[in-house]
Write a structure and sequence with these properties.
Length: about 450
């Protein structure tokens, strides 16, 4: 909700209202001035002033089409401008790095992927150089202004978004990834790092299938498995910011050794390696996973049984999570989305059987609205945070100058160039994700499998 001036300075109220207005347009899409007036509780003149300010900064445009307001007066429709201010979104996976430039409203302007082909490709040094190379390529293709870099990693991240503390499937510990990327990119944009499943949850909650759902779990599965948990409208962070490492719940104590050092973790039964291993193929690479899934869809008995067995183990962990967290929806991302597609009955029946006492009305298992792009778009939200939280931090159009993101530097010992930083607000450990009063079970129709 927008603020009026009581109890705050005029400038801080204006900046807050600019952020509220831009955030609404970013999340909900084009909206008429009349509707903005009703939603934000401000008068028409104030909305007009705020829209003009955002337009002068190149953040929004007004379409010539008009919408009829209640008393018959035409009202212009306001939309974010998705091509000028851009975030660089990076998803570091276990088998590839993916990078995109994303504008306001989640517009993907350019996208590149680089698969790992050798074991050494997962090293910090190689990943940083790969990101710098892909960045140089996409930036050469597009115009616009880079306002931030968001990076998703399959591991735990320090609460300040600077350090990857432990990424077992990459074999990374205590990696200062934000600083390394700032040096490699050589530009002025701020780099923030986040956990991949948490960022998938942010994307789906802010603009996807979980919009206005205050209790949800986004499960992301590749080689590893993680959860982004939103409870009461807030991301569950834990004492150290490491909540959601559900892939390392020990569900089969006599099972396989896990990269985390433990044994029988959930991801050793439901991750991509487990799926591939069940058909007798040594794990490694997305192509093997896709092959097993394709053959299962075609009715190959061995591959189908491998998917069914993975679905059975998936249901074991899911039931435990439902008991612990009581979410309204569970979003199945990564390879889990395809397991849901191939054998929905196995998953739904087993979860329904074992959770019916506490969830008599059922829980919706849903596909992510953004498919395999949820995590990447969540990383973009990190990169866009500065401009969304404080649109007044960017200059009006006449004063704009592109940030000088340099070509990647690989020569050791060369001093880093002076960096221009964009002023950023703090990185709060807990993020408010939506008002309780707006709670609606929207976005589920036709997308989910409702249990019971
Ligand atoms: Zn583990």
């Amino acid at each position: 909700m927008a603020r009026t001036e009581k109890g705050a300075t005029q400038d801080s109220v204006r900046r807050h209202n600019l952020g509220t207005l831009l955030g609404h347009l970013h999340r909900h899409g084009p909206t008429s001035r009349a509707r903005l007036t009703r939603i934000l509780g401000l008068n028409r003149a104030t909305i007009g002033y705020l829209v003009d300010d955002l337009a002068a900064r190149g953040l929004v445009t007004e379409t010539p089409e008009t919408e009829q307001a209640p008393r018959g007066r035409p009202s212009k429709v306001v939309a974010v401008r998705g091509d000028l201010y851009q975030a660089m979104a990076v998803h570091v996976g276990v088998d590839a790095v993916e990078l995109a430039l994303v504008g306001l409203g989640g517009t993907i302007l350019a996208r590149r992927r680089s698969a790992f082909s050798r074991p050494g490709d997962r090293s910090v040094d190689h990943v940083v150089r790969t990101i710098a190379r892909l960045a140089a390529r996409v930036l050469a293709e597009t115009g616009g202004l880079l306002v931030g870099v968001g990076v998703a990693v399959p591991g735990t991240v320090s609460p300040d978004g600077e350090m990857v503390t432990f990424a077992p499937n990459l074999r990374w510990r205590q990696v200062a990834l934000a600083r390394l990327l700032q040096e490699a990119l050589g530009g002025g944009a701020v780099v923030r790092v986040g956990n991949d499943a948490n960022l998938g949850a942010v994307a789906e909650h802010s603009r996807g299938v979980g919009i206005q759902v205050n209790d949800l779990v986004y499960l992301h599965a590749e080689v590893g498995v993680g959860a982004g948990i939103i409870t009461g409208g807030r991301m569950l962070e834990g004492a150290g910011g490491y909540a959601g490492e559900v892939g390392h719940m020990q569900l089969n104590p006599g099972g396989l050794a896990c990269h985390c050092g433990s044994r029988g973790c959930w991801e050793t039964e439901v991750g991509e390696d487990a799926l591939v291993r069940r058909v007798g193929i040594p794990p490694g690479g997305r192509s093997k996973v896709d092959l097993v899934l394709r053959r299962a869809r075609d009715g190959d008995r061995v591959c189908l049984e491998a998917v069914e067995e993975t679905a059975r183990w998936l249901s074991v962990g899911l039931v435990n999570m439902l008991s612990a967290l009581d979410p309204e929806i569970v979003i199945l991302g990564g390879v889990f989305e395809q397991i849901l597609d191939i054998c929905p009955e196995t998953l739904v029946d087993r979860v329904a059987q074992t959770s019916r006492y506490f969830h008599p009305d059922g829980v919706a298992l849903v596909r992510p609205a953004f498919g395999r792009s949820s995590v990447l778009l969540g990383a973009a939200e990190l990169g866009l945070r500065t401009v969304l939280e404080d649109p007044a931090s960017v200059s009006p159009m006449a004063e704009l100058r592109p940030l000088d993101l340099k070509q990647p530097q690989t020569r050791p010992g060369r001093p880093a160039p002076p960096r221009r930083r964009i002023e950023t607000p703090g990185n709060p450990p807990v993020r408010e994700l939506g008002p309780q009063s707006d709670r609606l079970a929207v976005g589920l129709k036709g997308r989910g499998t409702r249990i019971l």
